[in-house]
Amino acid sequence: MKGGRTIDLRIPPKAFNPAYLPFLDTVGRYEVYYGGAGSGKSRFAAQKSIVKACRYKRKVLVVRKVGRTLRDSVFAEIQEVLRAWGLWEYCRVNKTDMTIELPNGSSFLFKGADDPEKIKSILGITDMWIEEATELSLADFTQLDLRLRAVKDPQIILTFNPVSATHWLKKHFVDQDRGAAVLRTTYADNRFLDAGYRELLEGLKEEDSYFYQVYALGEWGTL
Fold this sequence. Notes:
By secondary structure, the protein is α/β, with parallel strands linked by helices.
């Protein structure tokens, strides 16, 4: 509610990539979306976070390892979805502090894991989205996990490219059954991807086998 008006948010299924749509309403504590470049995983993480924040009053912490990388990545991604869905004009956006408040009181905060003391001081976090999760150590993730104490459906979404088969994320979430929802996607799952970028990814097959394995096929990288 803002200015005496109620926002009626109706998003058609075609706004989402079909591979992700079954996960729109899942509520487990951990959700892992990994795979190739251009697969739409970051866009879906933004979409799902916004849908949940519109339905219920939530306090969403969006994280990357380095704080200075937030503005041109996840902060821009959330804003782009809000604009596409006609919500932008109803939100309070503080570009200096990188905070976004929705009409129902839900909020998005953007912080770098390289400043853990600031994250520790944030109270009432209900959800997290960790972008480029491979940048974080297991200790970084554990500290973030401890910050999430919501009573109702706390959730951490992790998105990343599977850069190394020895990474802790593979052992922690993919190789072991921790009850996490796990989805691997590639550029072929993103129907919104432009043809030029598709050709770029497919061209990696002849140029660099490691890059093709990770960024085109979305498979765990091995050197």
